[in-house]
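new request in #modeling-help
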Amino acid sequence: MATTDVVPRGSAGQMGQKRVVNDMSIQVATVNGSGSQSSNTVLLRSIFQMGVPISGKNLFPSNIAGLPTWFTIRANKDGYIARKKEIDLLIAMNAETAQDDVKTLNPGAAVLYDEPLALDKLRTDLIFYAVPYDKLAATVGADAKLRKLIKNMIYVGVAAHLLGIDHAEVEKAIGKQFATKAKAATLNLAAAKAGHDYAAANLTKRDPFYIERMDKTKGKIIVDGNSAAALGCMFAGCTVVTWYPITPSSSLVETMIDYMKEHRVGPDGKATFAIVQAEDELAAIGMVIGAAWAGARSMTATAGPGISLMAEFTGLAYFVEIPAVIWDIQRVGPSTGLPTRTSQGDVLSTAFLSHGDTKHILLFPSSVSECFSMAQEAFDLAEHFQTPVFVMSDLDLGMNNWMSDPFSYPEKPIDRGKVLTREDIEKAGSFARYKDVDGDGIGYRTLPGTEHPAAAYFARGSGHNERAQYSERPDDFERNMERLNKKFETARSFVPRPEVMTGAKAKVGIIAYGTSHWAIIESRDQLVNEHKLETDYLRVRSYPFTREIHDFIANHERVYVVEQNRDGQMASLLKLDIKPELHPRLRSICHIHGLPIDARSVTDELMMMEGK
Amino acid sequence: MGTTTNTPAPSSAPAPKTNRIGLQVIDYRGGKTTLCAGCGHNAISERIIDAMYEMGVQPERVAKLSGIGCSSKSPAYFMNRAHSLNSVHGRMPSVATGAMLANKDLIALGVTGDGDTVSIGVGQFVHLMRRNLPIIYVIEDNGCYGLTKGQFSATADLGSKLKSGVVNDLPPVDTCAMAIQLGATFVGRSFSGDKRQLHTMLKAAIAHRGTVMLDVVSPCVTFNDHEGSTKSYKYMQEHEEAVNEVSFVPSFEEINVDYDPGSTLEVTMHDGSSLRLRKMEEEYDPTNKIHAVRRLMESHEKGEVLTGVFYINAKAPNFIDLLNVTDQPLATLPESVTRPSREVLAKCMEELQ
């Protein structure tokens, strides 16, 4: 924690403390459904517009209105945007949690609170600022109903002033947030101004935290992973989406509906896509499979419970060899678990989803730009290998705000895989659907409606031979299963390769994937700066594993596999793949409480396991 | 099964009989059945072959879809030139829906059983019906699970007996009443042994653009054709009551038989063909849902097995119409259409800045 290095402990309010510039975490504690989302976005954007790297994470309950919710903003000049464990500035708006929220702060933190809560009586080692929100809201002139909402924008005005954010940036962010709602914009501008003016006239800056203008966000975008995925799927040429609402995946499809309506409807008003809300996840995946069998680039988005329900159909798609793209926006299981909290807990169950011998291609995006680019990779791999492909995102990536470079236009042409046309069949005379013609394990398929008497084949989940005929012959079954295995082996050289960061012969390696990445890059710097421990790092981007992963493990004495589940699921998956003599090198660092993983926890646990 | 072999060329004169697109009935045949000799399902397969042949349907345009069970195996025994997907138990409706989303030019033919539809698949059945997806959905209904050796299904009638003497004490689900209530637009029941009625209903079904739900009582000769069964050949012969006599004139044939508008309802189908329903019961009105469901409920009390076209609405929009997709099937749209331009991405990026 950078702030503890500079803020004198227990010396809140003392003069002469060192300024902490562009390095802080802000936590806003509100009540779910109180309309704080817009205000938090405005605060986030204001910092972003000041040129400071940020991330915004919504730590919310499984509830529509009434339960406590927190929004965390990380601003960091070095670009560390993982969740920070410690809170530097608390904006306490929720009477129910305020006392607990204050009690858990580290000494030296600042608290902005609603005056009647009288939080300053609780501790002497914090810096308190009281704001009379009700009185200020009344001066803004809103009616009683709206006052509750605009209190949220008042705290933005106060906090921005205290942190030294130009009020013009707040106004600009409000303009963007309420671009299509002029009346709301006016009211919110007045509220922010009221907060700003109150702070300017009544509050004396006593905390060390400042935002100062820099230039690290120029040209960047702010977007959540689900929206990025929606865009990616649209540009990947997806034509059929069938889904069943489930947190945290729903916004992926809902955003996609908006984008597709805007950009994938012709001048004649006809859509180049169909999006259907199914009756459950079984139907959602069934429709994906039916559509893909008939030739559409089809997908669904779901979370753990949906993945469980899709198991049987996934086996059908694997065995009949039908493409499917499934986005798993992972949340905390087992069972209903913590539906609004993040996890990487579906790795093992998804890799082998369904009964019998099945295994599936998995992609692990770490960033919003990978949500965009892996969309096309997923569709291309699914159609190339005629098999389900799972994109293993998570709630933290999918639903939270991330800063990114703008996405690059896809330059790679769309890969529709081995599909025979009427002309191809005419030339060949006939075809055998499941024959390994090219030695890569991938057969040729035809689409229903191909007008040639020899084009059709009988797709079935029961045993079949190369010519798609029903067969219970042991040799047919074995040959087919071995070919499916070969196909999976072929995929090893097609899936996205890992990102490897190696330095000067480090003995310690770290393996991570997905959103854990952001904690790792920060933790590696902490390990060097605080413990002089150099590490190499490999970020897994896909399953099956590629050669680089085997080499990385072989080249390091100890390899820490960091993940957000209890059982070390990636570590287990790796152990199935690597030589047994390498097993002892793998050590798991697991993180399961549902909040996005932070660097400090990784650093502390890794050092403990290093025995130092 | 020889699904990929070409049709053998005709060997000698006289020229074989062909339909309006120049195909012979053999072009609609399938593999050799592996169902029991005398199984009602085989008769249904024959009727499908005849109806498709007579309607001049291009076999390659047909998508045969099924779930799991004896009935779901039967698509292998007709129309080898049509693509087929034998999917998972009870989930054929979703697979069929997906296929039609991808290619609306397909003619979806779903074949299922009473176990596949009414027990494990009842959820998907419900939602298929309410979407009015263009599909011919045939339940080969034998009141039992044939493939697992004769357990009761949910269409077994109250009081009907298993071979072992076990009596069914739960009421049956009436799939036709359900389908009417849920939104299917062509609902009827027939009997695998009623060649003429089933054949005619299947031809009319091919002309309909919406969900056709046909419950076809199809006796299981091995497990449910004994005394005490209500799905046996004998029981059907004794209890079948048709609400109307069904006749059909395809759009490509000239109408040369008059009918009495007082006793016959003529329905003009989507493609211009004509479905005629001659009243067998004075009061029966197949355009009235309430009427249809009431009559079906009455039949249970009277111990009748009603057959005929119970309900028809040839004008309701179907699910694909509602989606308003491009004329060219989504499945084959080129990249130039499915990938927006650089300018679109630039605009999307600007909005996020």
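bot summary: The longest strand of chain B covers residues 305-312.
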